[in-house]
Structures are given as structure tokens and as C-alpha cells.
Amino acid sequence: MKVSIIIPAHNEEYLIGKVLADVVDQVPLEIIEEVVVVDDHSIDATAQIVSEFAQNHTTFNIEVVSNNTPAGFANALRFGIKQARGDLLLHLMADGCDNISDILLIFEKFKQKNIDMVCGSRYMKPGERNGGLVLKGFFSRLVGISLSRIINIPTKDCSNAFKMYKKDILDNIMLNSDSFEISMELCVKAYLFGYKISEISTVWHEREDGSSDFKMFHESFGYIRLYFWAILKYFNKVIYGKIIKL
């Protein structure tokens, strides 16, 4: 098994180079199929920086592709998934918030257990969420931990984009989200469909430069809709005797 790392990037010229450098320095080449950076309608030098980096690091298969669908994280991610050739897919944020050294630990988890998805969890001890809006952090923690208790999903951080999964999961589920909640949709739908999910603790850091595209009040509606949809679907399975066993 090899991993395709997918990095949606919108106007990330200040951080994308460091993210790619960390991938090259911290992730073993032998587990990587490719690194696909999806330039999401950027108006800065994001694409140029990735291209130059790829030319200077030819041992890694790094490419930048332009999202030819409407702009937005969900569309960029879907576009990147279509380009991916690896057996495993991993989503990585372009702003450097994810702990890249954990990619190898996540990959190793697939060898230890018969699982289909491994989530990086900020809310599994000793994981941490450092920085960012307090309200956003509270909302994220509430959604993750409460869903793990209510529907027994085996991760406390289903909304975290930092997760690795078998590509063939997407043969059976469709991702319909319009924005950042697509990461939560992927996890919840995979669980309800019967795929085996696990998690490792990870540390998340607020971006060091630039500004986030995440708009708290606008984005929260998608998460809330998914939250209650997941609970409804889970108990519908319980009532009709189709309890998911992981």
C-alpha cells in the first residue's frame, strides 16, 4: 500500500513551501505514491512555488493541479481525489496546522489492525488543539466527543481533515458537502456504511501566517446538519436491527 497525499491550497504562498518541505523531511519516501497539491483558484504564487519545489525534489512525485471546478475546499478536495493513484489517501491542510510527523504513525496503524480509516484526533489524549478561535475549538470538540458517545463512532474527532483511508471507500459513498464539513461527512458515512475506523492522537496548531478561509458562523450550519443526520441514520439502523459492529 502507498499513500497519495492531497493538499487543497488557496492563496497559500507563505506556507505551502514549508508544508512540502516537512513532508519530504518527515515522511518516508517508500510509503508515498505522490503528493497532489490542488491549486484552488489562487491569485498568488502558490502554484509557482509548488512547481519549483517539485523540480528541486524529484525523488518525490510532487505535482500541482488546478481545480477546474468551482472554488472551495470541498470541490478542491474532490478534484484532488480524482487525480490520486495511491491505495490510501491522506488529506493534508496547506496552512501547516497538521502534525506531519504523524503521517508515518497513521500509516503504521493500517499494518497493526484490519481497518479502513485512521483519523488524527486532537481530542484523544495526549492530543492537543493549540490556538485558533476559542468558540471554534469548543464547537469542534463538542461535535467530535458527543458523536463518539451517541453513535459510538470510534473517533473523538470526526471533523478533523487529517485522516488516512482506503481509496476504495469512495466506491460506496458519495461526498456531497460544499465546504470544510466534507471531512466529517467522509468519516460519518464511512462508519455508517460499516467501514472500520480507528484513531491516533495528534497535535493541531493554528496557522503561523496568513488568514484562514474558515468562516465560523457560515460553516457551522453544514456541521450541524451532518451532526443530526448522523444521529438520525444511526438510530434508524438500531431500530431496524442493523447495528454496525466495528
Keywords:
alpha/beta; 7 helices; about 250 residues; two-stranded parallel sheet; 7-stranded mixed beta sheet; single chain
Written overview of the protein:
The protein is of the alpha/beta class and 246 residues long. 39% of the residues lie in helices and 18% in strands. It contains seven helices and nine strands, in the order βαβαβαβαββαβαββα. The chain has helices spanning 16-26, 46-56, 73-83, 102-112, 134-150, 182-193, 216-239; strands at residues 3-9, 32-39, 62-66, 88-91, 117-121, 128-130, 163-166, 197-201, 203-205. The chain has a seven-stranded mixed beta sheet with strand order 3-2-1-4-7-5-8, sandwiched between helices. A two-stranded parallel ribbon has the order 6-9. Helix 1 links the parallel strand 1 and strand 2. Helix 1 (16-26) runs parallel beside helix 2 (46-56). The longest helix has 24 residues, at 216-239. The radius of gyration is 17 Å and the shape is globular. The two termini are 22 Å apart.
Task: Summarize the model shown.
The protein is of the alpha/beta class and 246 residues long.
Count every beta strand, where a strand is a DSSP E run of 2 or more residues: 9
Largest sheet: 7 strands, mixed
State the end-to-end distance: 22 Å
> Which value, in Å, is the CA radius of gyration?
17 Å
Spell the H/E element sequence. EHEHEHEHEEHEHEEH
Oligomerization status of the protein chains:
single chain
Range of helix content: 25-40%
Strand content: 15-25%
Number of H- or I-type helical stretches: 7
Q: What structural class do helix, strand and pairing data support? A: alpha/beta
- Gross morphology: globular
